[in-house]
């Protein structure tokens, strides 16, 4: 099994872990960043003496400079110094933005992320990417910096809305497909409702950690984490304009089927392997039956950050548990794979 990151503790007693970090660091002030949901469902489990509570509104639309200003103002009014600590208690929005706000306040104070969604536990908290959205561009302003500590307690997921929970499962499936065939075999053996989370979450974290540790600033290997995301982001953007919005993990689930079909066309997956992926995703996620064609999502694909002068680049499976990046694919192949998904 791959290694967990050194800065991460998995525990069903997050308060105890936090207390020992506080004893070690002796911060002069402590704040906890929450949104209305994590304030109600998660904060009661952290027994910390007299923290400043900074409450922001949940939602991606609030992951912006205005909310950071509110965080910085509260820290300033509460006389936080370079010896103070910020605890980010929430999903990826709180972790990315709280980490960014802490890293820039007085050139950086200590921060601990306590991720409370499945997506943030296995994905957003690992790899040191922090940031906010700017000018309608996602994660446009930010930096690479690791939290001083991450505490993962799968118990927080009990209050998570089932659709959000399942969306995070998309990234768990992705980690297995790109890097760990054994994990894929385990996943396949059960349906979503019967998965063993206390085993799956640490394993999924270690897969992401193994990939980002080899490529901390995204120059190469880290691109394999984009499997399912080229088509997925385009589909996500398209459905954003309709009344049937998709959650990120749902769009990625579709992306993994379509890009799995591209791998099949390349001769890198067998028919059976492709069908396994397709069947598992269709059984476990609630997805639209038909997809828009390339004439509709083509423009979104052209905007993908991974493209270069050669065209649209993908990260594609080369067998289950293996992934290649910077694979250039023709529009004709993309169209064929989109049609394969939409086939009744
Ligand atoms: N830094 C990275 O490497 C990285 C990777 C992937 C995604 N992200 C970012 O993560 C964000 C998405 O994160 P997310 O999917 O966790 O969404 P999110 O942070 O918006 O949380 C989803 C919803 O669940 C609620 N919630 C969180 N924990 C809860 C709990 N335990 N019980 C009840 N409700 C709870 C939140 O209030 C919110 O309404 C995006 O902004 C994305 O850009 C970052
Ligand atoms: Zn993703």
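-> sequence recovered:
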């Amino acid at each position: 099994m791959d290694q967990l990151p050194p800065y991460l503790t998995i525990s069903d007693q997050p308060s105890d872990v936090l207390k020992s970090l506080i004893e070690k660091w002796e911060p002069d002030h402590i704040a906890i960043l929450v949104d209305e949901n994590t304030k109600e469902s998660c904060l009661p489990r952290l027994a910390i003496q007299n923290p400043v509570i900074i409450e922001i509104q949940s939602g991606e639309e609030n992951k912006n400079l205005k909310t950071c200003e509110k965080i910085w103002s509260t820290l300033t009014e509460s006389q936080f110094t370079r010896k103070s600590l910020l605890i980010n208690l929430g999903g990826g929005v709180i972790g990315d933005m709280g980490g960014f706000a802490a890293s820039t306040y007085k050139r950086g104070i200590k921060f601990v992320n306590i991720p409370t969604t499945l997506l943030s536990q296995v994905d957003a908290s690992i790899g040191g990417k922090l940031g906010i959205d700017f000018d309608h561009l996602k994660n446009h302003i930010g930096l690479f910096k690791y939290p001083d500590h991450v505490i993962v307690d799968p118990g927080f997921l009990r209050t998570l809305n089932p659709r959000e929970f399942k969306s995070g499962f998309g990234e768990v499936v992705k980690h297995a497909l790109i890097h760990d065939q054994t994990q894929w075999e385990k996943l396949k053996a059960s349906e979503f409702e019967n998965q063993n989370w206390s085993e799956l979450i640490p394993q999924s974290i270690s897969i992401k950690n193994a990939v980002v540790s080899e490529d901390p600033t995204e120059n190469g290997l880290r691109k394999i984490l984009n499997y399912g995301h080229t088509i997925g982001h385009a589909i996500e953007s398209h459905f954003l304009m309709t009344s049937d919005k998709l959650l990120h993990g749902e769009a990625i689930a579709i992306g993994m089927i379509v890009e799995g079909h591209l791998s099949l066309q390349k001769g890198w997956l067998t028919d059976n392997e492709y069908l396994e992926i397709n069947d598992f995703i269709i059984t476990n996620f609630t997805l639209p039956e038909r997809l828009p064609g390339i004439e509709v999502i083509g423009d979104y694909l052209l905007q993908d950050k991974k493209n270069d002068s050669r065209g649209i680049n993908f990260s594609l499976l080369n067998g289950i548990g293996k992934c290649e990046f910077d694979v250039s694919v023709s529009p004709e192949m993309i169209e064929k794979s989109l049609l394969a998904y939409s086939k009744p």
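The pocket of nicotinamide-adenine-dinucleotide (ligand 1) is lined by residues 35, 37-38, 41-42, 58, 60, 63, 90-94, 96, 116-117, 119-120, 123-124, 127, 129, 139, 156, 159-160, 164 (CB under 6 Å).
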